[in-house]
Amino acid sequence: MRLRKKNKQTSTPLINGIHSEAIDIRDIESLQYTFGTIKVATNDFSEENKLGAGGFGAVYKGKLGDGREVAVKRLAKNSGQGDIEFKNEVLLVAKLQHRNLVRLLGFGIEGSERLLIYEYMSNASLDKFLFDPIKRMFLDWETRYCIIKDVAKGLLYLHEDSCLRIIHRDMKASNVLLDAKMNAKIADFGMARLFKPEETHGNTLRIVGTYGYMAPEYAKHGHFSVKSDVFSFGVLVLEMITGQKNSSFQNGEDMENLLSFAWESWKNETGPNMIDPTLKTGPGSLRNILRSIHIGLLCVQENVNDRPTMGKVGLMLNSLSIMLPTPSKPAFYMRPNISEARPRSSQLSINDVSISEISPR
């Protein structure tokens, strides 16, 4: 497989098994930064510049020579991906242009080093606000609802409006970043799978993702589709309302499953009991919150076909006049025994750390 030089074409490269457009070498060169440039920008990847770390590597704040602030992801060195495959994937992600997706600005390669350069989001990730007892007081309902709608728009673009159908596979609060105005953007496409528009689902023996957000058909059997992202989105919506993580939800002194609690609250018409107490709710916002609980429950239903598409979710979020169907019992389950929860060949994260696929995609 070769990069296409000027006026010369070759076979289209494969990304995640999908043929992408032939890549112009000039496009690649315009996105590539030298390792030295990024090293200087991040003060040699200093601890002071470190923004966080996860299963894919660490992220550092940097400042380029032109004054732009960036976030640099230094990937783990065992990704197994070759230079050309890495560049191909970088170029494809860089071409995803949507106001609710974190923009990839470039990349760097030197030896086994792989660097991804993203736009810098000054308010970091949603989980830093939502699950902090002090900071979440800055998230009033209007702000939370705007974030929910921003994430829905970003997922709709990935599922239906981009050149390929893209399944994120790791939708969670820590992968939603916030800019200075608290606008939300989806980040981290390290686990994303790409499909042709006519394709709807896939299977894998290597389960990747984060406990608490994974759809049951994916966690148990490796089946994933756009409806897997819808399930994760539904969990996120319910977390936005309660201010608590699904994986460690607590009702008073009792540890409980967030989805089961939300289901019982909706069924018994006690929805106000699950609202984050830091939220000040008036009659208008209360109606909106209860409707959002309903939408979240529609997204986390056991039956994949019962879950709405992100297009339908967007309509439900933006129009109070649309009647919502009755949700069926959600796919809730308590923390599984790891040996029973996944195939032997898969890797599942039971905390908030993502685990990537071991083999090249």
From TrEMBL:
UniProt cross-references to Pfam families, sorted A to Z: PK_Tyr_Ser-Thr
Any one GO cellular component localisation term in the record: plasma membrane
Lipid bilayer topology: Single-pass membrane protein
UniProt: ATP binding residues: K73
Segments forming domain Protein kinase: 45-324
InterPro entries: Kinase-like_dom_sf, Prot_kinase_dom, Protein_kinase_ATP_BS, Ser-Thr/Tyr_kinase_cat_dom, Ser/Thr_kinase_AS
Family label: Belongs to the protein kinase superfamily.
UniProt keyword list: ATP-binding, Glycoprotein, Kinase, Membrane, Nucleotide-binding, Phosphoprotein, Receptor, Repeat, Serine/threonine-protein kinase, Signal, Transferase, Transmembrane, Transmembrane helix
The name this protein goes by in its record: Protein kinase domain-containing protein
GO terms of biological process kind: response to abscisic acid
GO molecular function, one term: ATP binding
Organism from which the protein derives: Tagetes erecta
Localisation per UniProt entry: Membrane
